[in-house]
Amino acid sequence: MKRVLSVLVICMLSACASQTTQPSADVEERTIGGSDGADSNALNGGDPRFHPLRDPNNILSERTVYFDYDSYTVKGEYRPLVLAHAKYLRDNQSMSILIQGHTDERGSREYNLALGQRRADNVKNIMLLSGASDAQVESVSLGEEKPQTTGHGESSWAQNRRANIVYRGE
Amino acid sequence: MSCYINRLLRGLFVFLLWLASTPLHAALDIEIFGGGATRIPIAIVPFEAEARLQQSVTSVVAADLQRSGLFKLVDARGQALYEPGQINYTDWAVRGANALVIGQTLILPNGQVEIRFYLMDVAKKVQLTSLMTTVPMTQLRAAAHHIADVIYEALTGDVGVFRTRIAYVLKQQNKYALQIADADGFNAQSVIEYSEPIISPAWSPDGRALAYVSFENKKPIVYVQILATGERRVVANFNGSNSAPTWSPDGKRLAIVLTKDGNSQIFVINVDGSGLQRISRSSGIDTEPNFSADGQSIIFTSDRGGSPQIYRTAISGPNSGVVERLTFEGNYNVSPQLSSDGKQFTFIHRNGSRFNVAIQNIATGQMQLLTNSQFDESPSFAPNDKIILYATEIRGRGILSAVTSDGQTRQELSLQDGDIREPAWGPLRDR
């Protein structure tokens, strides 16, 4: 009980010292997946080493894996893309990525959050089996909260069922 | 000193919120569909001197009773009837009223309002109950909800829920606000506002705090926020995603969903973030936990059988860890919530291409669909189990809707603009 009280007091103090519209979170300041050493500015400033990621003719410029409804199986057509990024990570140990899993808008938001996580995890697992290291790849889910397009129909939904590969510092 | 200034600022902010949430802005449109055959005909005569008040009391009472689906309003406009002694019961019987509500209001010298009301049984010509209350002018809606609760309880024998509150998430353009409002949608106030998504608000059993999931730090993290003070803390910020908070009945623990060990799995954690304990162990998705009223078991959504279905597991006692599947119809059953008596649960059932609110009796396994709309989400029982609040979509816009647990009466509550989702019905307030 004492512990709860002291936590409350601390919360009150910190809330009081903060702004009003957005109460301050006692959030540990940490980037997703922790600070894993990838220089966050590596991709800025046009360093030629990183051109393969931006070259539209290079498969590494493709960053999205699309999924079937209610499925988290990475379809064969996306394997070359996933494998290319795995190889790039293997050859560039200082690079790291975030894989964001997404779903369409139908159904439960919480179930979709879990489904998006499985999509991201499946992409991650293929990468780990193909030479990327665990420290280089973090998978997270944004569920149905960040659609690529906001329409309400199968063509929009198909675009929203996806996993996005985001290089840190990009 | 800066603390003092901040307090002033916060006071100003609350005042601005109040301005922004005056009834005109907050008004939810209520539409009622269908309705049971056995609705109680009730006449509510405008209270004496009510026109002098800032807010009509009887119109709020009438709207409350009508929304419950259990009452039919008998026209009582233009009547000047304020005392039980003046009642001509035969006249009201002819008008078709079984129950009659009359009353008086009086503005006291200190500005407060005294309200008296009487509930009469027209057939038996007796007074069923009465109430006298004195409230500030700003609390007239609350007083009216109180009167509606007294009437509801006297005539139905069930607990009234008109004084409860709801929480929901309002999205306007790219802004997300976690809001709380009275059960009729008025007095809406933002608890927090962010430019990143907020999902899964859950009321603490005492109604003083909300747990929710915010993406403000670029990934889902579980917070608990005390409503009266605005203070909040992180409950779960583990590696991966943190979501789906739900309170234990004693308010000391939360069930949450974490992906720190791989797939989404259910854990229990103390409200202060200590004592993490894993509950579910499957190779699939386990999510959307919900405690039974005795705290001994949890129902949840899992795709362990190949499609999302609803399961129940004991979390203490001799059967601890034993998992039982509850839903078998269809291949998408999610978002379970148990009734407070534990005998049934409401959930979302995919019905062809539709996602509808359903209810299932645990003992019989019998499922009943309660809605036939296109995209329903997040069903939440009223504390008396009689009404289920849920989110649905009309012309691409999220609105709140409510259906009685027997499926007989449905109503839509819609804010004037914005996209509303993730409703959660709060507990009964202290009486």
Would you give an account of this structure?
The complex is a heterodimer of chains A (170) and B (431). Chain A is of the alpha+beta class. Helix content of chain A is 35%, strand content 13%. Chain A is built from five helices and four strands. A four-stranded mixed beta sheet of chain A has the order 1-4-2-3. In chain A, helix 4 (109-129) links the parallel strand 2 (97-102) and strand 3. Chain A starts with a helix and ends with a strand. Chain B has helices at residues 2-20, 23-26, 57-67, 89-94, 140-156; strands at 29-34, 40-44, 71-74, 99-107, 113-121, 126-135, 165-172, 175-182, 189-194, 198-203, 209-214, 221-226, 232-236, 242-247, 253-258, 265-270, 277-278, 286-291, 297-302, 309-314, 323-325, 333-338, 344-351, 354-361, 367-369, 377-381, 387-394, 397-404, 409-414, 419-425. With 431 residues, chain B is mainly beta. In chain B, strand 12 and strand 13 (232-236) form a beta hairpin. At the A-B interface, helix 1, helix 4 and strand 3 of A face helix 1, strand 9, strand 12 and strand 13 of B.
Fold blueprint:
The complex is a heterodimer of chains A (170) and B (431).
Chain A: H1 2-16, H2 51-54, E1 64-66, H3 79-91, E2 97-102, H4 109-129, E3 137-143, H5 154-160, E4 162-167
Parallel strand pairs in A: 2-3
Antiparallel strand pairs in A: 1-4, 2-4
Helix pairs in contact in A: 3-4
Chain B: H1 2-20, H2 23-26, E1 29-34, E2 40-44, H3 57-67, E3 71-74, H4 89-94, E4 99-107, E5 113-121, E6 126-135, H5 140-156, E7 165-172, E8 175-182, E9 189-194, E10 198-203, E11 209-214, E12 221-226, E13 232-236, E14 242-247, E15 253-258, E16 265-270, E17 277-278, E18 286-291, E19 297-302, E20 309-314, E21 323-325, E22 333-338, E23 344-351, E24 354-361, E25 367-369, E26 377-381, E27 387-394, E28 397-404, E29 409-414, E30 419-425
Parallel strand pairs in B: 2-3, 2-4
Antiparallel strand pairs in B: 1-29, 4-5, 5-6, 7-8, 7-30, 8-9, 10-11, 11-12, 12-13, 14-15, 15-16, 16-17, 18-19, 19-20, 20-21, 22-23, 23-24, 24-25, 26-27, 27-28, 28-29
